[in-house]
Amino acid sequence: MLSSESRRAARRYGLTLIECLVVVSIIGLLISLFLPAVQAAREAARRAHCTSNLRQIGLALHNYETRNGSFPLNWSEPRVDPIRGHAYGIYDRPFSAFTRLLADLDQWALYASINFQVETFPVLRPGAFSFPQNSSAFVTTLAVFLCPSDGASGPTPHGCNYRGNYGVGPYGATSRQTYDSGTGFYTFPGVLGARSFTDGLAHTVAYSERLRGTGEGGGLVPSRDFGNILVQSDCTDRDADYALKCCQLASTRDFPAFRDGGFTWFYGDFECAAYSHAQGPNGRIPDALSSFGGWVGIATARSVHPGGVNSLMADGSVRFVKESITRQVWRGLGTRNGGELVE
User: Fold this and answer.
1) CA 109, CA 104: separation in Å to the nearest integer?
2) Is there a domain that residue 34 lies in?
3) I want to staple 267 with a disulfide (CB 3.0 to 4.6 A). Which of 3, 27, 93, 337 is the partner?
4) Is residue 288 part of a domain?
5) How many whole angstroms separate alpha carbon 243 and alpha carbon 169?
C-alpha cells in the first residue's frame, strides 16, 4: 500500500485537463505559424524552378539565333506547293517555336522525330490524327515547358505554361487595323533577328507565363479559361482596347467557351504558346479567343506566384513582374519597336 508521501509524488507527475489543453493550444499555435512558412518556402522553390525553365528557353533562343541569324518562327510559314507551284501555308495549327528549339534544349531525338513538311495534327481534337508522323512528339511531356507552381492541373499532361509575346493586340500580324499586333518578340509573317529590336532586347519581353485551362468538366475559373471573343464584329481585327471590351462582354455570355488553354507546347497560337500585353499580369478581364480563322484573341500573362509573373526578356534575363505594374508600362515592355525604353 502506498504511503501518503508516495501518493503526493505520483500526483506531482500527472497533468491536469487544463494543462493538457494549454499544451495542445500551444502546439496548434506553433503549427499555424510554421505551416505558412513551409508553404512559402515551397513556393519560393517552385518559383525558382520556373525561373530556371525560362532561362533555359532564353539560352535556347539565343543559341538558335546565333546559328540561324534569327529567332525561330512561332506561327505559320509559307510553303511552295510542289504540284501547283505557288505558296501555301500551314492552315491547321502552326508549329510553335518550341518545336524548333528542341535541339537547343537537349531534345535531339524528339526534334528529329518531327516532320515539319506536313501539317500539324490532329485536325479535329480529339478526333482522327490526320498526320500521324508527329503523333509521338505531340504527346510528349517536357518539364521545361511546365511551371511547377501550376501543379498537376491542366487538360493534358503534355501541356505548356510558357508563351511567346506577340505584342499588344489580339492578332499575330501588324496591319492598319491591327497596328498594335505583331509588335512583340514574334510577328507574322516572317522571323526576327536581334537587329529587329530597336527598343533593345533588354527592354522587350520574349516569354511569360499563363495558367493552363481547366479541361473538360472543369469548374468556372476565369483566370484559366477563355470566352468566345466573337461577340461583335472586328473583335480580333482592331486594337487591344477594342479586343478587351469584347473580352469583357464575352465573359458574360456562355463563359467559358474554351477550356483547353495550354494543352500542348506543339502549337504556336494564342490557345497554346502565344500571349499578348493588352492588359497587365493577372488582369481582371477574362481572356477570350476565336477558333474561327486561327485561334487568335487576348491571352494574358497569368500565374499563381503571389503578386505577379516570371518574364523572360529578349536578352535572356528573367524578371519577376509585379501585377501592380501599370498597363502603359507593361505594354511598353511588350513591344520591340515602340520607342519605350522601359527598365
Assistant:
1) 11
2) no
3) 93
4) yes
5) 8
Q: What band does 124 get if pLDDT is binned at 50, 70 and 90?
A: very low
- Say how many C-beta atoms besides its own lie within 10 A of residue 190's C-beta: 14
HEC profile of 175-203: CCCCCCECCCCCCCCCCCCHHHCCCCHHH
Residue range(s) defining the domain that contains residue 81 = 52-333
Which residue is it, cell 490524327? 129
Confidence at 12, pLDDT banded by 50, 70, 90: low
Question: CA distances (Å), 191 to each of 141, 151, 241, in order?
Answer: 27, 33, 26
Report how far apart the first and last C-alpha atoms of the chain are (Å, whole number): 85
Q: How many domains does the chain have?
A: 1
Q: Is the pLDDT of residue 130 over 70?
A: no
Rounded to the nearest 5°, which phi and psi values hold at 216? -60, 135
Q: Which residues, 6+ apart, have CB-to-CB distance to 191 below 8 Å? A: 70, 71, 72, 73
Q: Is residue 130 part of a domain?
A: yes
Provide CB contacts within 8 A for 202, sequence distance 6+.
313, 314, 315, 317
Residue of 174, 112, 162, 105 lying closest to 137 (CA atoms): 112
The answer to whether position 35 is within a domain reads: no
Q: Which residues contact 218 (CB under 8 A, 6 or more apart)?
A: 155, 224, 225, 259
Centroid of chain to Cα 126:
22
- Stretch 1-19: mean pLDDT, rounded? 60
